[in-house]
Design brief:
Elements: H1 3-20, E1 24-30, E2 39-44, E3 48-49, E4 52-59, H2 63-66, E5 70-75, E6 80-85, E7 92-98, E8 102-109, E9 114-127
């Protein structure tokens, strides 16, 4: 019966999010990764989102991608939204990107303070009123 309280909590959370107008169903992310030295692909990983979309960023097998130590998400307001550390050899990095907004992903090497790549992204989905 441990699942019943979790389901009830999830239902309450969804009701609160819907009533506050902060729920997006089927969140998505789009970006042109063809010219990226670091990012191979991006995919939204959950069936719904509130303030941010959980995204998996798959990194390329390139020297630039191998040198990434952090990915910073910059919001539309040009402010830092989040920074995620990237482990040595890590090929898939979970990110949290603002929902229904444009953002920029900045891949960098914090050891020598160099920017290795930037990628403009856009998130979307079916936003409930």
């Amino acid at each position: 019966m441990a699942g019943a309280p979790r389901r009830a909590l999830a239902i309450v959370l969804v009701v609160v999010l819907v009533s506050s107008g902060c729920l997006t169903l089927g969140p998505s992310i789009s970006a042109d990764t063809d010219g990226s030295a670091v990012f191979e692909s991006l995919s939204a990983e959950e069936p719904w989102a509130s303030e941010h979309v959980r995204v998996n960023a798959t990194l390329r097998s390139t020297p630039a991608a191998g040198n990434v130590t952090t990915i910073t998400i910059i919001g539309e307001n040009k402010q830092e939204y989040d920074t995620v550390s990237v482990g040595s050899g890590q090929s898939v990095v979970p990110l949290w990107v603002p929902t229904n907004r444009n953002a920029t992903l900045v891949a960098s090497n914090s050891v020598n303070s160099t920017t290795l790549d930037t990628l403009n992204v856009s998130t979307g989905g079916n936003q409930l009123p």
